[in-house]
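Please fill in the sequence for the structure shown.

STRUCTURE ENCODING:
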């Protein structure tokens, strides 16, 4: 069974891009190791006077501790975000990303705020891509459950959106941004991921102190959002996660999703 720990970044109106990230944790293989790695990183990187009761929120780590610059310089705080976000790579598991540009069109029938639609779409893209990875690489009857940070005002919308299947698109050079990997392969490697059928029950909403691995998803979402929004340290953070660079221009379509699999046995377009 997989736990899909998920968090989002860039959901407020002024942001140029909304990102939902998920960390795939196979319960028996990964959970204990991930929890231990997280504690070790926090013990190593968080100043002793701040460590008691410390809960990792990437945005707060970067911007909320400026008065502590003397004892916790910014470069060390950025380093903490990168180390937390790199835990999936150390575990040889996968990170899933759903991304929607904030200038993407919103259906006329959608009655809520545009930023809510973009968040819901990014969430569905991420969950459907995670679902496809589990179906492709898990056991034949592998199931999953979603764990998300508790956001009271969006609970019902998020719970409903995972019941919906998106329309598949015709993947060709006219409908997608052809990537460097596509060109090297001589064919388009990108795939549709539209169905969420391996998730059981509903979304489990928790605080980060109740489900500590949400802190890893937080670090991943924040890092990719900073990179895709071309904000400072974004390239450094994404390189910490992937140990390689992304090509920013390949992510400039209105909406996209991808799996970054660190398991050498699993290539996951």
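FILLED IN BY: designer on duty
SEQUENCE:
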């Amino acid at each position: 069974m997989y736990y899909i720990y998920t968090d989002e970044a860039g959901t407020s109106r002024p942001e140029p891009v909304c990102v939902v990230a998920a960390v795939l944790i196979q319960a028996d293989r990964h959970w204990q190791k991930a929890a231990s790695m997280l504690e070790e990183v926090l013990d190593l990187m968080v100043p002793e006077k701040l460590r008691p009761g410390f809960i990792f929120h990437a945005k707060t780590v970067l911007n909320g501790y400026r008065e502590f610059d003397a004892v916790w310089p910014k470069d060390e705080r950025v380093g903490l975000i990168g180390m937390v976000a790199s835990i999936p790579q150390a575990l040889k598991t996968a990170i899933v990303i759903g991304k929607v540009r904030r200038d993407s069109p919103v259906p006329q029938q959608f009655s809520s705020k545009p930023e809510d639609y973009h968040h819901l779409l990014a969430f569905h893209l991420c969950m459907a891509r995670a679902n496809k990875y589990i179906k492709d690489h898990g056991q034949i009857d592998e199931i999953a459950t979603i764990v998300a940070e508790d956001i009271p005002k969006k609970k019902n919308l998020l719970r409903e959106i995972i019941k919906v299947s998106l329309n598949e698109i015709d993947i060709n050079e006219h409908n997608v941004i052809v990537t460097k990997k596509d060109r090297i392969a001589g064919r388009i490697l990108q795939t549709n991921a539209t169905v969420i059928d391996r998730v059981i029950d509903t979304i489990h909403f928790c605080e980060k102190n109740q489900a500590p691995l949400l802190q890893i998803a937080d670090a991943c979402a924040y890092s990719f959002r900073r990179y895709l929004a071309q904000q400072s340290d974004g390239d450094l953070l994404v390189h910490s996660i992937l140990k390689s660079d992304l090509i920013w221009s390949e992510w400039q379509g209105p909406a996209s999703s991808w799996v970054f699999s660190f398991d050498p046995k699993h290539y996951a377009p």
